Amino acid sequence: MDLSVFSGFSLIYGEPGVGKTSLALRIAEGLGRKILYISMYEYKYKIEDKIKYLQLDIDRFSIYDFINISEREAVLEAIGDIYVREAPDVVVIDGVNYFPDNRETASAIYRMFDIPVIAIGEEPAGRSPLAYMADLLIEMRQEFSRGARYRYARFLKSRLGQPPAAELRLAVVRGGPVLIEPWNEGRLGPAAIPLSMRRVVFAAEAVEALAAARQDYARPGLLEGSRVADFVGQGPEDMALASAVLCDYAESARTALIYTHRTIERFVKCDVKRRLVPVDALADDKGLEALMDAVGDAKVAFLHGLEQVVFRLGVRRLRLVLDFLSSWRPDLAVAAFFSGVEPSPRLFDMFNTVWRIEAGKAEVVKSMLGWPVRRFKVERREGAFHFIPSSI
Known about the structure:
With 392 residues, the protein is α/β, with parallel strands linked by helices.
């Protein structure tokens, strides 16, 4: 995100626990090398714990707390003295609701600094004189749906630049909050991930037709940042095919297998980094952290069992999980496998390429590559699955 919109006086407000402090800390680190942090409601050690959790450089922060001090004017004067003495690049004031809600106090706070300031307040701060004076105003909120948490940052006012969107989703995870930007199929990296395709083999005429259609991409594979969905049946042959695709990926590029249930484990016949992430964990940000740990530095994330996310948490949550991965790692290619789910428009809109594979047949429902061949027979022979063009 372009941080120039935070170059003046910013006010972030919302209910407790929505992620205001985490967002302010991350933004502050991006604005300058030396950060002055003023806390009105939390002790210094608690702020230090947050900084460490977010994996920010704690040596860049000078933290002062003013807990249980009732003399507001004395506190304002002390903050001014600290500001002059510390000479920071950016200031964070956490707890502006502590100060009197009047124009005189708001003006004093607003005019005290000549560097970027991020003020944090609870909900009433959004209707205060300070909100009127602020150059940037962000409302943060959260909601729960089907047991899943959703955090939002809404840009209400910006005098110093264009915000990235009117509203962004947010995840607070180890390493710093991630602003989750909506994904679109045009977000593709320039580099192709070559695949060996030894276990899943396309007939020569299909590869030649693809090469003729796309001179820059002559064989089946993935592009950085792409998303491929495979909707397969629930039989053993379909699970074996999913495993074959996974192993071809793993043999060609660093691949992480992430699954919501263990069904696929007995079918995987290759060495691949793997991790079980239960569906219930994906309802909150800790589950998104688990995804980050599971992916690591892999170039391909192979997600198996996403039908469980759809059934239990809903399509909305699946979209957030996928958009989170794309926002955190724009270069990451995602291969998602669903079993027992039809590729409805709400689902395949999340992917560049969509396949339906079941009972010895395969169909390209949607393709970023413009597949000239759309239907295949699938035959298993000589230890491989062969995709043969078919008119049926």
